[in-house]
Amino acid sequence: MKKFIITLSAFIITALPFSVTAYAAENLDRDYIEAEIWDDMWNGKGDDGLDFPEASYKHHLLDKWLDENYGSDEYDWSELGELKYEYKDYYRDYIEDFDFEDDDNGNWTIETPEHSYRFELYQGAWNMIDENGDTVDTFPPFSTLEDDDEAETAGGHTIDDKGNGSPRVVGKVTNGTETVSEGLASGEGNDTADTASNGSESHTGASESNPLPIIAGVVAVVGVGAAGFYITRKKK
């Protein structure tokens, strides 16, 4: 009995780091999350990111949100549907007081109660400039063209931000450092409930294979067995 307990305890101690690592790996890949959220919510013009700033700016907001939050305890990073909902809710709140203006010639501006912003492409990056001429943000161009330079027609979700209601298109960065996974056109028009299960099934099947409760149970059993063994031995 003593040898059995020692052997089992050594096995658990060896397996525990691997189990913790496996549990952490349940988080969906950051780039995958970014690509899926973008594909689900973006409806706009197909352009290479160098003529119009709209898509580049909106993708930049998504990228920045992920940079600031990915891996935090505030969100469940294993549930794609929940993440889509959370970001859309964040985005709606963020642009609540924004008034977007687009003259279809690349002059896309934002008016807020406090400021007005315009965008200028300079040295391969978009600059967001306020009414005083100060650059308040900078981000790389983001292309919404497919590889064959033809926009893909789709009827997915849209966010009411006074933008254009033209077809959703696939995106990639032009002359920048941001990256987005290929194959963004899957799961068109899915609602939050559907995408939650689809996201989990396509990546690691996280919550179904969590080993920590099993290990905790085994540790408890071993502890009880060891205590019983030593108590019995002491009585003898």
Q: What would you say this structure looks like, in words?
A:
The chain has helices at residues 2-24, 30-41, 54-69, 80-94, 192-202, 212-235; strands spanning 99-102, 108-111, 116-122, 125-130, 135-139, 142-143, 172-173. The chain has 236 residues and is α+β, with helices and mostly antiparallel strands. A 5-stranded antiparallel sheet has the order 1-2-3-4-5, with helices on one face. Strand 1 and strand 2 (108-111) form a beta hairpin. Helix 2 (30-41) runs antiparallel to helix 3. It is elongated and about 85 Å long. The model is unreliable at 19-23, 150-158, 164-170 and 177-209 (pLDDT under 50).
Question: Key terms for this structure?
Answer:
236 residues, five-stranded antiparallel β-sheet, two-stranded antiparallel sheet, single chain, 7 strands, alpha+beta
- What are the segments in which pLDDT stays under 50 over at least 5 consecutive residues? 19-23, 150-158, 164-170, 177-209
Instruction: Report the sheet-strand fraction.
Output: 5-15%
Radius of gyration in whole Å, from Cα? Answer: 25 Å
Strand order across the largest sheet = 1-2-3-4-5
Structural class: alpha+beta
Write down the overall geometry.
elongated
Q: Count the helices. How many?
A: 6
Give the overall pLDDT as a whole number: 72
Number of strands: 7
